[in-house]
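2024-03-11 09:14:02 INFO receiving multi-entity request
2024-03-11 09:14:02 INFO entity count = two
2024-03-11 09:14:03 INFO echoing inputs for audit
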Amino acid sequence: MTADADAERKTATPRARRSLRPPASFTILCLLTALVCAAVVALTLGAAGIPLGRLPAALGFWPEHPVNPLTSRDQLVLWSIRIPRIAAAAMVGALLAVSGAIMQGLFRNPLADPALVGVSSGGAFAAAAAIVFTDSKLGESLRFMQNELLPLAAFAGSLVTTVILYAIASRAGRTSIAIFLLAGLAIAAIANAGIGLLVFVADDRQLRDITFWLLGSLSGATWTKTATIAPVLALGLIACLWIARGLDVLVLGEAEAFHSGVDVERLKRISIVLVSAMTGVAVSICGVVGFVGIVVPHLLRLVIGPAHRLLLPASALLGAVLLVGADTLARTIVAPAEMPIGILTAAIGAPFFLAMLLRQRGLVAL
Amino acid sequence: MTALLEARAVSMAIGGATLVDAIDLTVNSGETIAIVGPNGAGKSTLLRLISGDLRASRGAISLKQRDLHAYSSRQLALHRAMLSQHVSVSFPFTVEEVVHMGAGDRGRAAAEPLVEAALHEAGLADFRHRKLPTLSGGEQQRAHFARVLVQLACGEAAHGPGLLLLDEPTSSLDLRHQIDLVETARRRAANGTAVVAILHDLNLAVRFADRIVVLHRGAKVADDVPANTVTDDLIRTVFEIDVRVQRHSDGTPLVLPQLMTAIGPKLQETS
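2024-03-11 09:21:47 INFO inference complete, emitting structure
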Protein backbone atom coordinates (compact mmCIF):
# COMPACT_ATOMS: atom_id res chain seq x y z
CA MET A 1 0.00 0.00 0.00
CA THR A 2 2.71 2.44 0.99
CA ALA A 3 4.82 1.38 -1.96
CA ASP A 4 1.85 1.95 -4.26
CA ALA A 5 1.25 5.36 -2.79
CA ASP A 6 4.92 6.20 -3.22
CA ALA A 7 4.93 5.12 -6.86
CA GLU A 8 1.78 7.11 -7.48
CA ARG A 9 3.27 10.20 -5.92
CA LYS A 10 6.34 9.94 -8.12
CA THR A 11 4.46 9.62 -11.39
CA ALA A 12 1.40 11.71 -10.73
CA THR A 13 3.19 14.97 -9.92
CA PRO A 14 6.01 16.66 -11.80
CA ARG A 15 8.22 16.29 -8.72
CA ALA A 16 11.34 15.31 -10.59
CA ARG A 17 11.29 18.35 -12.87
CA ARG A 18 14.87 19.47 -13.04
CA SER A 19 16.15 22.97 -12.92
CA LEU A 20 19.53 22.51 -14.50
CA ARG A 21 21.95 25.34 -14.09
CA PRO A 22 24.96 25.97 -16.30
CA PRO A 23 28.36 25.24 -14.73
CA ALA A 24 30.09 28.20 -13.08
CA SER A 25 33.08 28.26 -15.42
CA PHE A 26 30.81 28.36 -18.48
CA THR A 27 28.81 31.26 -17.02
CA ILE A 28 31.92 33.31 -16.25
CA LEU A 29 33.38 32.56 -19.70
CA CYS A 30 30.18 33.66 -21.47
CA LEU A 31 30.03 36.88 -19.47
CA LEU A 32 33.73 37.63 -20.10
CA THR A 33 33.17 37.13 -23.85
CA ALA A 34 30.17 39.45 -23.71
CA LEU A 35 32.24 42.07 -21.88
CA VAL A 36 35.03 41.91 -24.48
CA CYS A 37 32.47 42.21 -27.32
CA ALA A 38 30.75 45.15 -25.64
CA ALA A 39 34.09 46.87 -25.09
CA VAL A 40 35.15 46.38 -28.73
CA VAL A 41 31.85 47.79 -30.00
CA ALA A 42 32.20 50.69 -27.56
CA LEU A 43 35.73 51.36 -28.85
CA THR A 44 34.60 51.67 -32.45
CA LEU A 45 31.55 53.87 -31.89
CA GLY A 46 31.45 57.53 -30.97
CA ALA A 47 31.85 61.07 -32.21
CA ALA A 48 34.99 59.97 -34.07
CA GLY A 49 34.19 56.58 -35.56
CA ILE A 50 37.02 54.06 -35.61
CA PRO A 51 36.14 51.14 -37.89
CA LEU A 52 37.08 47.65 -36.73
CA GLY A 53 39.82 47.43 -39.38
CA ARG A 54 41.70 50.40 -37.94
CA LEU A 55 41.27 49.32 -34.33
CA PRO A 56 44.31 47.01 -33.91
CA ALA A 57 46.67 49.63 -35.31
CA ALA A 58 45.12 52.37 -33.21
CA LEU A 59 45.53 50.23 -30.11
CA GLY A 60 49.16 49.75 -31.12
CA PHE A 61 48.94 45.97 -31.55
CA TRP A 62 50.97 45.94 -34.73
CA PRO A 63 52.60 48.61 -36.94
CA GLU A 64 50.78 49.55 -40.10
CA HIS A 65 52.12 49.43 -43.70
CA PRO A 66 51.51 51.86 -45.19
CA VAL A 67 50.93 54.13 -42.18
CA ASN A 68 47.40 55.50 -42.11
CA PRO A 69 47.33 59.26 -41.46
CA LEU A 70 44.28 58.75 -39.21
CA THR A 71 46.06 56.39 -36.85
CA SER A 72 47.55 59.06 -34.61
CA ARG A 73 44.17 60.76 -34.25
CA ASP A 74 42.59 57.39 -33.45
CA GLN A 75 45.25 56.73 -30.84
CA LEU A 76 44.61 60.05 -29.15
CA VAL A 77 40.83 59.48 -29.09
CA LEU A 78 41.19 55.94 -27.78
CA TRP A 79 43.83 56.35 -25.10
CA SER A 80 42.88 59.70 -23.63
CA ILE A 81 39.08 59.63 -23.97
CA ARG A 82 37.45 56.39 -24.92
CA ILE A 83 39.41 53.70 -23.09
CA PRO A 84 39.35 55.40 -19.65
CA ARG A 85 35.65 56.02 -20.14
CA ILE A 86 34.92 52.39 -21.07
CA ALA A 87 37.03 51.20 -18.15
CA ALA A 88 35.16 53.55 -15.81
CA ALA A 89 31.78 52.43 -17.21
CA ALA A 90 32.69 48.75 -16.76
CA MET A 91 33.90 49.26 -13.21
CA VAL A 92 30.98 51.46 -12.18
CA GLY A 93 28.58 48.87 -13.63
CA ALA A 94 30.35 46.13 -11.69
CA LEU A 95 30.24 48.17 -8.45
CA LEU A 96 26.55 48.98 -8.82
CA ALA A 97 25.49 45.44 -9.72
CA VAL A 98 27.50 43.84 -6.91
CA SER A 99 26.32 46.32 -4.29
CA GLY A 100 22.74 45.66 -5.46
CA ALA A 101 23.24 41.91 -5.11
CA ILE A 102 24.80 42.23 -1.63
CA MET A 103 22.03 44.57 -0.52
CA GLN A 104 19.37 42.13 -1.71
CA GLY A 105 21.07 39.34 0.21
CA LEU A 106 21.41 41.50 3.32
CA PHE A 107 17.75 42.56 3.27
CA ARG A 108 16.56 39.14 2.02
CA ASN A 109 14.62 41.05 -0.59
CA PRO A 110 15.11 40.90 -4.36
CA LEU A 111 13.70 44.43 -4.75
CA ALA A 112 16.51 46.17 -2.86
CA ASP A 113 18.65 48.56 -4.88
CA PRO A 114 21.01 51.24 -3.56
CA ALA A 115 19.59 53.90 -5.89
CA LEU A 116 15.97 53.03 -5.20
CA VAL A 117 16.14 53.19 -1.42
CA GLY A 118 18.15 56.35 -1.04
CA VAL A 119 21.65 54.96 -0.45
CA SER A 120 22.87 56.56 -3.70
CA SER A 121 21.03 59.77 -2.84
CA GLY A 122 22.71 59.83 0.58
CA GLY A 123 26.08 59.48 -1.14
CA ALA A 124 25.15 62.12 -3.71
CA PHE A 125 24.10 64.55 -0.99
CA ALA A 126 27.38 64.11 0.87
CA ALA A 127 29.38 64.50 -2.35
CA ALA A 128 27.45 67.64 -3.32
CA ALA A 129 28.10 69.00 0.17
CA ALA A 130 31.79 68.25 -0.33
CA ILE A 131 31.80 70.18 -3.63
CA VAL A 132 30.17 73.22 -2.08
CA PHE A 133 32.36 73.03 1.02
CA THR A 134 35.71 72.70 -0.77
CA ASP A 135 34.71 75.56 -3.03
CA SER A 136 33.82 77.86 -0.13
CA LYS A 137 36.28 80.07 1.80
CA LEU A 138 36.04 77.72 4.77
CA GLY A 139 37.21 74.63 2.93
CA GLU A 140 39.58 76.36 0.55
CA SER A 141 42.57 74.56 1.98
CA LEU A 142 41.06 71.22 1.02
CA ARG A 143 40.28 72.14 -2.58
CA PHE A 144 43.45 70.56 -3.96
CA MET A 145 42.23 67.14 -2.85
CA GLN A 146 38.68 67.45 -4.14
CA ASN A 147 39.21 64.39 -6.34
CA GLU A 148 40.01 62.24 -3.33
CA LEU A 149 37.49 63.90 -1.03
CA LEU A 150 34.51 63.30 -3.29
CA PRO A 151 34.53 59.46 -3.15
CA LEU A 152 35.20 59.56 0.61
CA ALA A 153 32.28 61.90 1.21
CA ALA A 154 30.01 59.78 -1.00
CA PHE A 155 31.07 56.67 0.92
CA ALA A 156 30.31 58.33 4.25
CA GLY A 157 26.92 59.53 3.00
CA SER A 158 26.01 56.07 1.70
CA LEU A 159 27.17 54.43 4.92
CA VAL A 160 25.02 56.66 7.12
CA THR A 161 21.98 56.04 4.90
CA THR A 162 22.43 52.26 4.85
CA VAL A 163 22.83 52.05 8.62
CA ILE A 164 19.71 54.18 9.19
CA LEU A 165 17.77 52.10 6.68
CA TYR A 166 18.79 48.84 8.33
CA ALA A 167 17.90 50.14 11.77
CA ILE A 168 14.45 51.20 10.60
CA ALA A 169 13.50 48.24 8.41
CA SER A 170 14.92 45.35 10.41
CA ARG A 171 13.25 44.24 13.59
CA ALA A 172 13.91 41.04 15.52
CA GLY A 173 15.82 39.55 12.63
CA ARG A 174 13.11 40.11 10.08
CA THR A 175 12.88 42.77 7.43
CA SER A 176 9.53 44.11 6.37
CA ILE A 177 9.52 44.71 2.63
CA ALA A 178 6.93 47.46 2.86
CA ILE A 179 8.69 49.35 5.67
CA PHE A 180 11.99 48.89 3.89
CA LEU A 181 10.81 50.40 0.59
CA LEU A 182 8.88 53.19 2.29
CA ALA A 183 11.77 54.07 4.61
CA GLY A 184 14.07 54.09 1.58
CA LEU A 185 11.69 56.42 -0.21
CA ALA A 186 11.62 58.78 2.77
CA ILE A 187 15.40 58.74 3.13
CA ALA A 188 15.81 59.42 -0.60
CA ALA A 189 13.38 62.34 -0.27
CA ILE A 190 15.35 63.81 2.64
CA ALA A 191 18.65 63.43 0.77
CA ASN A 192 17.15 64.96 -2.37
CA ALA A 193 15.81 67.88 -0.33
CA GLY A 194 19.34 68.37 0.97
CA ILE A 195 20.74 68.29 -2.56
CA GLY A 196 18.07 70.81 -3.59
CA LEU A 197 19.14 73.10 -0.77
CA LEU A 198 22.79 72.83 -1.84
CA VAL A 199 21.84 73.61 -5.43
CA PHE A 200 19.93 76.63 -4.12
CA VAL A 201 22.89 78.04 -2.16
CA ALA A 202 25.57 77.05 -4.70
CA ASP A 203 27.15 79.61 -6.99
CA ASP A 204 27.34 79.12 -10.76
CA ARG A 205 30.58 77.19 -10.83
CA GLN A 206 29.55 74.84 -8.00
CA LEU A 207 26.19 74.42 -9.64
CA ARG A 208 27.79 73.23 -12.85
CA ASP A 209 29.91 70.73 -10.91
CA ILE A 210 26.91 69.41 -8.98
CA THR A 211 24.45 69.08 -11.86
CA PHE A 212 27.16 67.52 -14.01
CA TRP A 213 27.16 64.26 -12.14
CA LEU A 214 23.72 64.46 -10.57
CA LEU A 215 22.31 63.71 -13.99
CA GLY A 216 24.54 60.69 -14.11
CA SER A 217 27.20 60.80 -16.78
CA LEU A 218 30.51 59.13 -17.44
CA SER A 219 31.78 61.90 -19.71
CA GLY A 220 34.06 63.16 -16.96
CA ALA A 221 35.90 59.83 -16.73
CA THR A 222 39.69 60.17 -16.65
CA TRP A 223 42.55 57.82 -15.88
CA THR A 224 42.80 59.38 -12.41
CA LYS A 225 39.17 58.61 -11.64
CA THR A 226 39.52 55.11 -13.05
CA ALA A 227 42.47 54.58 -10.75
CA THR A 228 40.32 55.63 -7.77
CA ILE A 229 37.66 53.00 -8.50
CA ALA A 230 39.93 50.07 -9.33
CA PRO A 231 41.21 49.29 -5.81
CA VAL A 232 37.71 49.60 -4.30
CA LEU A 233 36.34 47.18 -6.90
CA ALA A 234 39.22 44.75 -6.39
CA LEU A 235 38.89 44.79 -2.60
CA GLY A 236 35.10 44.54 -2.88
CA LEU A 237 35.26 41.48 -5.10
CA ILE A 238 37.72 39.72 -2.80
CA ALA A 239 35.51 40.50 0.20
CA CYS A 240 32.51 39.17 -1.74
CA LEU A 241 33.97 35.67 -1.94
CA TRP A 242 34.49 35.84 1.81
CA ILE A 243 30.90 36.74 2.67
CA ALA A 244 29.18 34.69 -0.06
CA ARG A 245 28.27 31.70 2.10
CA GLY A 246 27.11 33.90 4.94
CA LEU A 247 24.77 35.77 2.59
CA ASP A 248 23.37 32.45 1.32
CA VAL A 249 22.53 31.31 4.84
CA LEU A 250 21.26 34.76 5.83
CA VAL A 251 18.46 34.20 3.32
CA LEU A 252 17.00 31.79 5.91
CA GLY A 253 16.74 34.63 8.44
CA GLU A 254 19.09 36.00 11.08
CA ALA A 255 18.22 33.38 13.71
CA GLU A 256 18.76 30.47 11.32
CA ALA A 257 22.00 31.99 10.06
CA PHE A 258 23.19 32.20 13.68
CA HIS A 259 22.16 28.59 14.33
CA SER A 260 24.08 27.55 11.22
CA GLY A 261 27.26 29.07 12.63
CA VAL A 262 27.36 32.45 10.89
CA ASP A 263 28.53 35.45 12.90
CA VAL A 264 25.50 37.46 11.82
CA GLU A 265 26.48 40.80 13.33
CA ARG A 266 29.89 40.75 11.67
CA LEU A 267 28.38 39.68 8.33
CA LYS A 268 25.90 42.55 8.50
CA ARG A 269 28.62 45.07 9.33
CA ILE A 270 30.86 43.90 6.48
CA SER A 271 27.95 43.90 4.02
CA ILE A 272 26.83 47.39 5.00
CA VAL A 273 30.36 48.78 4.66
CA LEU A 274 30.80 47.03 1.29
CA VAL A 275 27.50 48.27 -0.12
CA SER A 276 28.23 51.80 1.08
CA ALA A 277 31.80 51.87 -0.22
CA MET A 278 30.91 50.44 -3.61
CA THR A 279 27.83 52.62 -4.09
CA GLY A 280 29.62 55.70 -2.76
CA VAL A 281 32.57 55.35 -5.11
CA ALA A 282 30.29 54.68 -8.08
CA VAL A 283 28.20 57.74 -7.21
CA SER A 284 31.29 59.92 -6.85
CA ILE A 285 32.34 59.04 -10.42
CA CYS A 286 29.09 59.26 -12.33
CA GLY A 287 26.27 60.42 -10.09
CA VAL A 288 23.11 58.47 -9.39
CA VAL A 289 22.67 55.65 -11.89
CA GLY A 290 19.70 53.57 -10.87
CA PHE A 291 18.35 50.08 -11.50
CA VAL A 292 21.62 48.40 -12.55
CA GLY A 293 21.75 46.87 -9.09
CA ILE A 294 18.27 45.45 -9.38
CA VAL A 295 18.14 44.27 -13.00
CA VAL A 296 21.48 42.47 -13.15
CA PRO A 297 21.24 40.17 -10.10
CA HIS A 298 17.61 39.36 -10.91
CA LEU A 299 18.39 38.28 -14.48
CA LEU A 300 21.31 36.21 -13.26
CA ARG A 301 19.31 34.46 -10.53
CA LEU A 302 16.90 33.23 -13.19
CA VAL A 303 19.75 31.51 -15.06
CA ILE A 304 22.45 30.59 -12.53
CA GLY A 305 20.46 30.48 -9.28
CA PRO A 306 20.79 32.61 -6.16
CA ALA A 307 24.00 31.16 -4.61
CA HIS A 308 26.19 34.19 -3.91
CA ARG A 309 29.55 32.56 -4.58
CA LEU A 310 28.76 32.72 -8.30
CA LEU A 311 26.09 35.41 -8.27
CA LEU A 312 28.40 38.14 -6.98
CA PRO A 313 31.25 37.78 -9.52
CA ALA A 314 28.74 37.14 -12.32
CA SER A 315 26.86 40.30 -11.31
CA ALA A 316 30.10 42.27 -11.55
CA LEU A 317 30.62 41.05 -15.12
CA LEU A 318 27.04 41.50 -16.33
CA GLY A 319 26.86 44.91 -14.62
CA ALA A 320 30.00 45.90 -16.52
CA VAL A 321 28.54 44.66 -19.83
CA LEU A 322 25.28 46.50 -19.20
CA LEU A 323 26.85 49.82 -18.29
CA VAL A 324 29.40 49.74 -21.13
CA GLY A 325 26.47 49.11 -23.49
CA ALA A 326 24.30 51.80 -21.91
CA ASP A 327 27.13 54.33 -21.95
CA THR A 328 27.85 53.62 -25.63
CA LEU A 329 24.18 54.17 -26.34
CA ALA A 330 24.22 57.37 -24.28
CA ARG A 331 27.19 58.64 -26.31
CA THR A 332 25.73 57.83 -29.73
CA ILE A 333 21.94 57.96 -29.56
CA VAL A 334 21.65 61.77 -29.77
CA ALA A 335 25.14 62.47 -31.19
CA PRO A 336 26.85 64.88 -31.18
CA ALA A 337 25.06 65.63 -27.88
CA GLU A 338 25.11 63.10 -25.03
CA MET A 339 22.24 61.67 -23.08
CA PRO A 340 22.73 61.32 -19.29
CA ILE A 341 23.22 57.61 -18.62
CA GLY A 342 20.97 57.75 -15.55
CA ILE A 343 18.01 58.50 -17.82
CA LEU A 344 18.80 55.46 -19.97
CA THR A 345 19.17 52.99 -17.12
CA ALA A 346 15.98 54.31 -15.52
CA ALA A 347 14.09 54.00 -18.80
CA ILE A 348 15.08 50.34 -19.05
CA GLY A 349 15.16 49.51 -15.34
CA ALA A 350 11.99 51.11 -14.03
CA PRO A 351 9.55 49.08 -16.20
CA PHE A 352 11.59 46.00 -15.32
CA PHE A 353 11.22 46.79 -11.61
CA LEU A 354 7.46 47.25 -12.02
CA ALA A 355 7.20 43.89 -13.77
CA MET A 356 9.08 42.25 -10.90
CA LEU A 357 6.82 43.95 -8.37
CA LEU A 358 3.70 42.73 -10.15
CA ARG A 359 5.04 39.17 -10.20
CA GLN A 360 5.89 39.37 -6.51
CA ARG A 361 2.51 40.72 -5.58
CA GLY A 362 1.03 37.27 -5.84
CA LEU A 363 3.81 35.61 -3.84
CA VAL A 364 4.61 37.99 -1.02
CA ALA A 365 2.14 39.93 1.06
CA LEU A 366 3.52 43.46 0.96
CA MET B 1 25.10 8.83 30.64
CA THR B 2 26.79 12.19 30.45
CA ALA B 3 24.97 15.49 30.78
CA LEU B 4 25.27 17.18 27.39
CA LEU B 5 23.37 20.26 28.41
CA GLU B 6 22.73 21.69 31.83
CA ALA B 7 20.50 24.67 32.53
CA ARG B 8 20.46 25.94 36.10
CA ALA B 9 17.74 28.31 37.35
CA VAL B 10 17.40 29.92 33.95
CA SER B 11 15.05 32.92 33.79
CA MET B 12 14.15 35.22 30.97
CA ALA B 13 12.29 38.48 31.52
CA ILE B 14 11.47 41.09 28.90
CA GLY B 15 9.91 44.38 29.92
CA GLY B 16 8.66 43.17 33.29
CA ALA B 17 7.07 39.99 31.91
CA THR B 18 8.74 36.76 32.98
CA LEU B 19 8.69 34.40 29.99
CA VAL B 20 10.80 31.68 31.55
CA ASP B 21 10.98 31.34 35.32
CA ALA B 22 13.91 29.63 37.08
CA ILE B 23 13.95 26.47 35.01
CA ASP B 24 16.41 23.64 35.67
CA LEU B 25 16.94 21.22 32.84
CA THR B 26 19.46 18.46 32.27
CA VAL B 27 19.71 16.80 28.87
CA ASN B 28 21.78 13.65 28.57
CA SER B 29 23.42 12.22 25.53
CA GLY B 30 21.06 9.83 23.70
CA GLU B 31 17.95 11.22 25.37
CA THR B 32 14.78 12.43 23.65
CA ILE B 33 12.90 15.17 25.46
CA ALA B 34 9.58 16.69 24.48
CA ILE B 35 8.64 20.13 25.77
CA VAL B 36 4.88 20.58 25.95
CA GLY B 37 2.60 23.27 27.28
CA PRO B 38 -0.11 25.69 26.21
CA ASN B 39 0.54 28.70 23.95
CA GLY B 40 2.63 31.31 25.72
CA ALA B 41 4.03 28.86 28.27
CA GLY B 42 7.59 29.83 27.33
CA LYS B 43 8.48 26.74 25.27
CA SER B 44 10.03 28.59 22.32
CA THR B 45 11.82 31.04 24.62
CA LEU B 46 13.32 28.15 26.58
CA LEU B 47 14.49 26.50 23.35
CA ARG B 48 16.01 29.75 22.08
CA LEU B 49 17.82 30.15 25.41
CA ILE B 50 19.22 26.62 25.12
CA SER B 51 20.27 27.26 21.52
CA GLY B 52 22.27 30.34 22.52
CA ASP B 53 20.08 32.58 20.39
CA LEU B 54 18.83 34.45 23.48
CA ARG B 55 20.82 35.29 26.57
CA ALA B 56 19.18 34.42 29.91
CA SER B 57 18.44 37.27 32.33
CA ARG B 58 19.43 34.99 35.21
CA GLY B 59 20.89 31.51 35.56
CA ALA B 60 23.50 29.62 33.60
CA ILE B 61 23.50 27.15 30.72
CA SER B 62 26.41 24.89 29.89
CA LEU B 63 26.88 22.72 26.83
CA LYS B 64 29.40 19.89 27.15
CA GLN B 65 30.59 21.34 30.48
CA ARG B 66 31.35 24.74 28.96
CA ASP B 67 29.37 27.96 29.25
CA LEU B 68 27.05 28.30 26.26
CA HIS B 69 28.12 31.87 25.51
CA ALA B 70 31.81 31.00 25.63
CA TYR B 71 31.34 29.35 22.23
CA SER B 72 31.57 31.40 19.04
CA SER B 73 28.57 31.00 16.74
CA ARG B 74 30.73 28.89 14.45
CA GLN B 75 31.86 26.52 17.24
CA LEU B 76 28.35 26.33 18.64
CA ALA B 77 27.00 25.21 15.26
CA LEU B 78 29.29 22.18 15.47
CA HIS B 79 27.77 21.04 18.78
CA ARG B 80 24.10 21.88 18.38
CA ALA B 81 21.71 22.19 15.46
CA MET B 82 18.37 23.94 15.70
CA LEU B 83 15.29 23.95 13.52
CA SER B 84 13.22 27.11 14.01
CA GLN B 85 9.49 27.29 13.69
CA HIS B 86 9.08 29.56 10.67
CA VAL B 87 11.79 29.79 8.05
CA SER B 88 10.97 31.58 4.84
CA VAL B 89 13.29 31.72 1.86
CA SER B 90 12.81 34.62 -0.53
CA PHE B 91 15.26 33.51 -3.21
CA PRO B 92 14.83 30.52 -5.54
CA PHE B 93 17.30 28.15 -3.88
CA THR B 94 16.72 24.49 -4.76
CA VAL B 95 15.99 21.93 -2.06
CA GLU B 96 19.47 20.46 -2.54
CA GLU B 97 21.13 23.87 -2.15
CA VAL B 98 19.22 24.57 1.05
CA VAL B 99 20.09 21.17 2.52
CA HIS B 100 23.69 21.81 1.53
CA MET B 101 23.73 25.00 3.62
CA GLY B 102 23.76 22.72 6.68
CA ALA B 103 27.26 21.58 5.73
CA GLY B 104 28.76 25.03 6.36
CA ASP B 105 31.94 25.67 4.44
CA ARG B 106 32.78 22.01 3.96
CA GLY B 107 33.57 21.17 0.34
CA ARG B 108 30.93 19.73 -1.94
CA ALA B 109 32.65 16.33 -2.06
CA ALA B 110 32.91 15.97 1.73
CA ALA B 111 29.30 17.01 2.32
CA GLU B 112 27.71 15.08 -0.56
CA PRO B 113 27.10 11.74 1.27
CA LEU B 114 25.59 13.57 4.27
CA VAL B 115 23.32 15.68 2.04
CA GLU B 116 22.26 12.57 0.15
CA ALA B 117 21.44 10.69 3.36
CA ALA B 118 19.46 13.62 4.79
CA LEU B 119 17.47 14.07 1.57
CA HIS B 120 16.44 10.42 1.72
CA GLU B 121 15.69 10.56 5.43
CA ALA B 122 13.36 13.52 4.87
CA GLY B 123 11.79 11.83 1.84
CA LEU B 124 12.94 14.61 -0.47
CA ALA B 125 15.18 12.76 -2.89
CA ASP B 126 12.75 13.39 -5.76
CA PHE B 127 12.45 17.06 -4.86
CA ARG B 128 16.14 17.92 -4.86
CA HIS B 129 16.03 20.16 -7.95
CA ARG B 130 12.76 21.86 -7.07
CA LYS B 131 12.94 25.47 -5.96
CA LEU B 132 12.08 25.82 -2.29
CA PRO B 133 9.51 28.65 -2.57
CA THR B 134 7.45 26.47 -4.96
CA LEU B 135 7.01 23.68 -2.39
CA SER B 136 4.18 23.26 0.11
CA GLY B 137 4.66 24.32 3.73
CA GLY B 138 5.18 20.75 4.89
CA GLU B 139 7.70 19.99 2.16
CA GLN B 140 9.63 23.15 3.02
CA GLN B 141 9.63 22.15 6.67
CA ARG B 142 11.09 18.75 5.74
CA ALA B 143 13.76 20.44 3.63
CA HIS B 144 14.82 22.55 6.61
CA PHE B 145 14.78 19.44 8.80
CA ALA B 146 17.12 17.76 6.29
CA ARG B 147 19.38 20.83 6.39
CA VAL B 148 19.55 20.67 10.19
CA LEU B 149 20.31 16.91 10.03
CA VAL B 150 23.28 17.66 7.74
CA GLN B 151 24.57 20.29 10.17
CA LEU B 152 24.22 17.84 13.07
CA ALA B 153 26.00 15.08 11.15
CA CYS B 154 28.87 17.40 10.19
CA GLY B 155 29.37 18.47 13.80
CA GLU B 156 29.06 14.94 15.18
CA ALA B 157 31.62 13.59 12.72
CA ALA B 158 34.21 15.88 14.30
CA HIS B 159 33.09 16.35 17.90
CA GLY B 160 30.95 13.36 18.90
CA PRO B 161 27.26 13.36 19.88
CA GLY B 162 25.59 16.76 19.69
CA LEU B 163 22.34 18.43 20.60
CA LEU B 164 19.39 18.62 18.21
CA LEU B 165 16.74 21.24 18.98
CA LEU B 166 13.41 21.21 17.14
CA ASP B 167 10.80 23.95 17.53
CA GLU B 168 7.44 22.48 16.50
CA PRO B 169 9.03 20.40 13.74
CA THR B 170 5.74 18.70 12.86
CA SER B 171 3.47 21.76 12.70
CA SER B 172 2.96 21.56 8.91
CA LEU B 173 3.47 17.83 8.41
CA ASP B 174 0.87 15.21 7.52
CA LEU B 175 0.46 12.22 9.81
CA ARG B 176 2.87 9.98 7.95
CA HIS B 177 5.65 12.56 7.89
CA GLN B 178 5.09 13.43 11.55
CA ILE B 179 5.81 9.82 12.40
CA ASP B 180 8.73 9.69 9.95
CA LEU B 181 10.27 12.74 11.61
CA VAL B 182 9.86 11.35 15.10
CA GLU B 183 11.39 8.04 14.00
CA THR B 184 14.33 9.85 12.39
CA ALA B 185 14.93 11.87 15.54
CA ARG B 186 14.79 8.72 17.67
CA ARG B 187 17.29 6.99 15.37
CA ARG B 188 19.66 9.90 15.91
CA ALA B 189 19.16 9.59 19.66
CA ALA B 190 20.03 5.90 19.47
CA ASN B 191 23.42 7.02 18.14
CA GLY B 192 23.99 9.34 21.09
CA THR B 193 22.42 12.62 19.93
CA ALA B 194 20.34 14.44 22.53
CA VAL B 195 17.08 15.62 21.00
CA VAL B 196 14.84 18.30 22.49
CA ALA B 197 11.61 19.02 20.62
CA ILE B 198 8.63 21.26 21.23
CA LEU B 199 5.52 19.30 20.33
CA HIS B 200 1.85 20.18 20.55
CA ASP B 201 0.45 16.73 19.87
CA LEU B 202 0.67 15.00 23.25
CA ASN B 203 0.24 11.56 21.73
CA LEU B 204 3.12 12.23 19.35
CA ALA B 205 5.16 13.53 22.31
CA VAL B 206 4.49 10.28 24.18
CA ARG B 207 5.63 8.27 21.19
CA PHE B 208 8.75 10.43 20.73
CA ALA B 209 10.07 11.21 24.18
CA ASP B 210 11.99 9.45 26.91
CA ARG B 211 11.08 12.40 29.11
CA ILE B 212 8.35 14.99 28.83
CA VAL B 213 8.88 18.47 30.27
CA VAL B 214 5.64 20.31 30.92
CA LEU B 215 5.77 24.11 31.03
CA HIS B 216 3.04 26.30 32.43
CA ARG B 217 3.24 30.10 32.59
CA GLY B 218 7.01 30.05 32.23
CA ALA B 219 7.63 27.50 34.96
CA LYS B 220 8.43 23.82 34.77
CA VAL B 221 5.59 21.85 36.36
CA ALA B 222 6.69 18.32 35.43
CA ASP B 223 9.75 16.55 34.07
CA ASP B 224 9.49 12.79 33.97
CA VAL B 225 8.81 9.74 31.79
CA PRO B 226 5.62 10.06 29.71
CA ALA B 227 3.65 7.65 31.91
CA ASN B 228 4.13 9.98 34.89
CA THR B 229 3.72 13.32 33.16
CA VAL B 230 0.76 12.73 30.90
CA THR B 231 -1.93 12.28 33.54
CA ASP B 232 -5.56 13.46 33.81
CA ASP B 233 -4.80 15.95 36.55
CA LEU B 234 -1.75 17.53 35.03
CA ILE B 235 -3.21 17.93 31.53
CA ARG B 236 -6.43 19.39 32.98
CA THR B 237 -4.53 21.91 35.11
CA VAL B 238 -2.08 22.97 32.45
CA PHE B 239 -4.25 22.98 29.32
CA GLU B 240 -7.51 23.85 31.09
CA ILE B 241 -9.51 21.29 29.16
CA ASP B 242 -11.34 18.18 30.16
CA VAL B 243 -9.41 15.14 29.06
CA ARG B 244 -9.35 11.48 29.76
CA VAL B 245 -5.96 9.82 29.62
CA GLN B 246 -6.27 6.17 28.74
CA ARG B 247 -3.56 3.55 28.77
CA HIS B 248 -2.44 1.20 26.05
CA SER B 249 -1.86 -2.34 27.22
CA ASP B 250 1.83 -1.53 27.70
CA GLY B 251 0.95 1.43 29.94
CA THR B 252 1.66 4.16 27.37
CA PRO B 253 -0.75 7.03 27.88
CA LEU B 254 -3.25 8.03 25.20
CA VAL B 255 -4.78 11.49 25.55
CA LEU B 256 -8.41 11.91 24.53
CA PRO B 257 -9.91 15.40 24.80
CA GLN B 258 -13.37 15.42 26.33
CA LEU B 259 -15.27 15.73 23.04
CA MET B 260 -13.69 12.52 21.88
CA THR B 261 -14.09 10.54 25.08
CA ALA B 262 -17.42 9.22 23.87
CA ILE B 263 -15.63 7.01 21.37
CA GLY B 264 -12.91 6.19 23.87
CA PRO B 265 -14.19 2.85 25.24
CA LYS B 266 -14.67 1.46 21.74
CA LEU B 267 -11.12 2.33 20.86
CA GLN B 268 -9.86 0.62 23.97
CA GLU B 269 -11.72 -2.55 23.09
CA THR B 270 -10.17 -2.76 19.65
CA SER B 271 -6.63 -2.12 20.80
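2024-03-11 09:21:48 INFO post-check: Chain B has ten helices and twelve strands.
2024-03-11 09:21:48 INFO post-check: Chain B touches chain A at residues 48, 51-53, 72-78, 81-82, 84, 87-94, 97-98, 101-102, 104-105, 126-127, 129-131, 133, 144, 151 (CB under 8 Å).
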